[in-house]
Amino acid sequence: MTRLSDSEIDERLSDGAWRREGDAIVRDVELGGFTAAMAFANVVADAANEANHHPDILIHGYKHVRLTLSTHSAGGITENDVALAHTIDGLVAGG
């Protein structure tokens, strides 16, 4: 998998809730409480397993989930990260 260029990353992140942090893309989601945050993390984990691409998932402040995507084997952000980000966006939207 090939790393995306800076301009490709900017283009793909221009219309969403994801932001770039170094060699990763990050999204924070606020949910209704701890149980909802844990349930959401598990739904993301299932989708990530299906895609064979695994984000870092941090639950903090009892109802906040931070998702960090990067393709470690490529040393940065790839199409796999963008694809999983779009899948996660659908999960956040409830679908």
How would you describe the overall organization of this protein?
This protein is of the alpha+beta class. It has a single domain, classed as Gyrase A, domain 2, CATH 3.30.1360.20. It has three helices and four strands. The protein has a four-stranded antiparallel β-sheet. The mean pLDDT is 95.
Keywords:
95 residues, alpha+beta, Gyrase A, domain 2, 3 helices, 4 strands
List the topology elements.
Blueprint lengths: L5 H8 L5 E3 L2 E7 L3 H18 L4 E5 L3 E6 L9 H14 L3
Antiparallel strand pairs: 1-2, 2-4, 3-4
Number of strands: 4
Estimated helix fraction: 40-55%
Beta fraction: 15-25%
N-to-C SSE string, H for helix and E for strand: HEEHEEH
Give a brief rundown of this model.
This protein is an alpha+beta fold.
